[in-house]
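Thread: "does anyone have the structure for this chain?"

Original post by V.I.:
We have the sequence but no experimental structure in hand. Need at least a predicted one for the grant figures.
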Amino acid sequence: MFFEYRKFADRFWTWRDYEIGYCAEGLDENLDKPAIVLIHGFGASVGHWRKNIPVLAQKFRVYAIDLIGFGSSAQPKPSELAYTFETWGQQVADFVNEVVGDRAILVGNSIGAVVAMQSAIYAPELIFKTVLINCSLRLLQEQNQLDMPWFKRVGVKAVQNILGNRVIAKLFFDQVRNRRSVKQILSQAYFHKEAVTEELVDILIQPAQNPNAVDVFMAFVRYSQGPRPEDLLAILPCDAIVLWGDRDPWEPIELGRKSFTKFACVKEFIDIPYAGHCPQDEVPEIVNNILLKLL
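Reply from O.Q.:
Generated one for you, tokens below.
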């Protein structure tokens, strides 16, 4: 039986005529405290923050939002809405303005960290700090592809072109969105294998069953445009704090350290030992303590 992830996204907000799921805790208890908005990574949802929200809500007003195309939010076809960092960045900026109604700290994991920076650039008067957890390095972004050997560039483009065929993309996606494949992918990303629970698999797999989920998948895997994190850090109008699981197989910590620490806006770069790509879920007690002390 699928885990009911909507119990996490128990509130809804209309953005550009689309339904957006989110959750909020600690609002009444922390009226005079800062607001935090948590932004998930690719394929995830507010449920990926289920181990963090109750702890952070003891001291902050905490919101977590499902990016459009993911979780409990609407999944319009790409012909209706472009799945880009510009779109998600504007979505989060509008959320802070219309729902939070106050200045906020944005905390993002993976592509959610890129979204956080894009939002801060769009709404500098609303975002006064960003926390980037294992930020996506966007190694397949078109400028980064130029650094690849020619045969790798050709291979990437070939795969992206093949996945532009919806029939082929659906066959591939059907193989990816089953329980066994999701567990295998999570076991690659997570250093702590015991954190790959049935609950976590259900949180990720249920939205992938929606009719337009394959179209969202196709749009993103073929998306090589948009900003690199370095491009955003160069113009980020607020401070950034970087947290990084040191066993991340997808976004190597040394590449992140080399790229990020040269920017003045990066005030701290904190290694999280023995953690993979999603330390907020793998070692939540460590991440929660860091956030409570820093924020």
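V.I.: this helps a lot. The chain has one domain: 8-294.
O.Q.: and Confidence is low (pLDDT under 50) at residues 1-5.
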